[in-house]
């Protein structure tokens, strides 16, 4: 197991991502953040927390999206659905999708499909903590990246979160 | 994690884990039904045939909506408008339909065991939508979902099932399910409508006293008097039944607590339930119907996955 990001690096990176998202849109009224279930939500929770810390009083519209029912491998393996919580319309808004690792791009493809059930967004952007470059199966690229890495198919990227796994760390596992 | 069974023939065959998985998945589908676009593409490659050999309003519409919300293709079949009236057997009818490449069969039949018979002879997944006086598993599941939603849990809850226990597939599915999930069950009704030795067979209580039962329970699931399945006189008149076992406003008001009223429908107003009870705030009858779509979506989704 090779460590890619330490706990301290993760916290600095998250603050940078929060700044970068706000840098493009200082008026947040037209922007919504949506974390992808299950593990993208740990990152989106932290980004929203960082935004509130850095800019007290800021108004952030934030939801959680589960894409299980939109997967293209529904018949291959059973995935347990998690909670979706989007109590607002995304009609005409700029949506920033947030996930922990971008790999083949299939999750994001499903998320784009799922998002349309909540309205027609003006624009959709993607924010990820880890971008596994050169491994995409769909034409999808992130707008905000914590760290880009080169990895091969037999390797696995694991993001540990304190809330769930007892520590913050990103590691590369060899199969 | 997946269901332990390929078909949903009855709650009897499910494990507690299966039931939890279905209820948990149904919760997510209930959220899907609140969205502006209430449809997901999960079953877009699946064809479902709804075979109704017996009349139905709620169950049939509910299944059809559930299938459409999952993007499945649906075909409907009604016995009276089909070749069944020309003498075709059940197996021939179903095999002919399946040769047109159907993946799942939702079936209601007046003969107990009809879906079990089909399951042994055809490759498609079968969902029992009510067979004779045996089981109505999706009703049992949606009742459990509604109780859990209202009271937060099933374990330790006291549920009374009141009325025609003898002829009720809803009662049987509810009893199996509630016992598997750790709830306490009392059945209550006139002695002629309660099968003998049901206490020992299911590990439940039997009471012939309506007020005592209502006083004991958290939830009263009131059943319809099934006149179409009774071929002998089991009580003297509907009016007498209403006086002894009908639930009225004044009876509910005389209890020390507020209980939840459920009914699988269709209601015989003024027989087992008075109108001012059926339409009161204590009643979750319409929520049961709403939850039915989400629960059936969960069953279809989980079985479609299991059958690949």
Give the largest interface pair and sizes.
Answer: A-B, 24 and 25 residues
By DSSP (H or I, 4+ residues per run), the number of helices of chain B equals 12
Helix content of chain B: 40-55%
Order of helices and strands of chain B: HEHEHEHEHEHEHEHEHHEHH
| Beta-strand content bin of chain A | 25-35%
Strand order of the largest sheet of chain A: 3-2-4-5-6
Largest sheet of chain B: 5 strands, parallel
Rg of chain A, rounded, reads: 16 Å
| Poorly predicted parts of chain B | none
Written description of the protein model:
Chain A has a five-stranded parallel beta sheet with strand order 3-2-4-5-6. A three-stranded antiparallel beta sheet of chain A has the order 1-8-7. Chain A starts with a strand and ends with a strand. The relative contact order of chain A is 0.20. Helix content of chain A is about 25%, strand content about 30%. In chain A, helix 1 (about 5-25) crosses helix 2 (about 40-55). Chain A has helices at about 5-25, 40-55, 105-115, 160-165, and strands at about 1-5, 30-35, 60-65, 95-100, 125-130, 145-150, 155-160, 170-175. In chain B, about 40% of the residues lie in helices and about 15% in strands. In chain B, the strands form two sheets. A five-stranded parallel beta sheet of chain B has the order 7-6-5-8-9, with helices on both faces. In chain B, helix 5 crosses helix 12 (about 285-305). The longest helix of chain B is centred in the C-terminal third of the chain and has 22 residues, at about 285-305. The model of chain B has no long low-confidence stretch (mean pLDDT about 90). The interface of A and B includes residues 70, 71, 75, 81 and 118 of A.
């Amino acid at each position: 197991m090779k460590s890619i990001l330490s706990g301290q690096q993760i916290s600095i990176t998250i603050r940078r991502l929060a700044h970068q998202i706000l840098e493009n849109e200082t008026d947040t009224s037209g922007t919504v953040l949506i974390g992808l279930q299950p593990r993208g939500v740990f990152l989106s929770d932290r980004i929203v927390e960082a935004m509130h810390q850095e800019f007290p009083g800021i108004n952030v519209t934030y939801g959680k999206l589960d894409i299980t029912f939109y997967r293209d491998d529904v018949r291959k393996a059973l995935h347990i659905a998690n909670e979706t919580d989007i109590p607002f319309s995304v009609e005409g808004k700029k949506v920033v999708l947030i996930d922990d690792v971008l790999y083949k791009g299939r999750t994001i493809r499903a998320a784009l499909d799922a998002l349309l059930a909540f309205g027609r967004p003006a624009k959709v952007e993607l924010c990820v903590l880890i971008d596994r470059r050169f491994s995409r199966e769909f034409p999808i690229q992130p707008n905000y990246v914590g760290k880009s890495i080169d990895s091969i198919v037999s390797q696995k990227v694991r993001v540990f979160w304190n809330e769930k796994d007892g520590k913050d760390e990103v590691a590369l596992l060899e199969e | 994690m997946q269901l332990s069974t390929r078909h949903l023939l009855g709650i009897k065959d499910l494990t507690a884990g299966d039931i939890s998985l279905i209820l948990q998945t149904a919760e997510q589908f209930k959220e899907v039904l609140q969205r502006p676009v209430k449809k997901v593409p999960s079953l877009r490659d699946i064809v479902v045939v709804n075979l109704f050999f017996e009349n139905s309003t709620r169950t049939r519409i509910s299944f059809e909506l559930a299938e459409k919300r999952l993007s499945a293709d649906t075909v409907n079949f009604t016995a009276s408008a089909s070749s069944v009236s020309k003498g075709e057997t059940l197996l021939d009818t179903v095999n002919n339909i399946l040769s047109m490449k159907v993946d799942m069969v939702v079936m209601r039949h007046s003969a107990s065991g009809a879906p079990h018979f089909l399951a042994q002879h055809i490759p498609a997944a079968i969902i029992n939508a009510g067979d004779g006086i045996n089981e109505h598993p999706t009703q049992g599941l949606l009742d459990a979902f509604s109780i859990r939603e209202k009271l937060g849990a099933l374990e330790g809850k006291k549920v009374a099932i009141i009325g025609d226990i003898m002829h009720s597939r809803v009662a049987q599915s509810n009893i199996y399910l509630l016992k598997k999930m750790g709830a306490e069950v009392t059945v209550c009704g006139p002695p002629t409508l309660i099968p003998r030795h049901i206490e020992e067979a299911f590990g439940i209580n039997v009471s012939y006293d309506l007020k005592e039962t209502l006083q004991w329970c958290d939830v009263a699931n009131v059943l319809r008097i099934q006149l179409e399945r009774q071929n002998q006189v089991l009580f003297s008149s509907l009016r007498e039944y209403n006086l002894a076992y009908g639930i009225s406003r004044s009876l509910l008001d005389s209890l020390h607590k507020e209980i939840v009223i459920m009914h699988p429908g269709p209601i015989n107003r003024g027989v087992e339930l008075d109108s001012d009870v059926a339409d009161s705030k204590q009643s979750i009858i319409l929520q049961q119907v709403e939850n039915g779509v989400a629960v059936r979506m969960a069953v279809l989704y989980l079985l479609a996955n299991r059958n690949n």
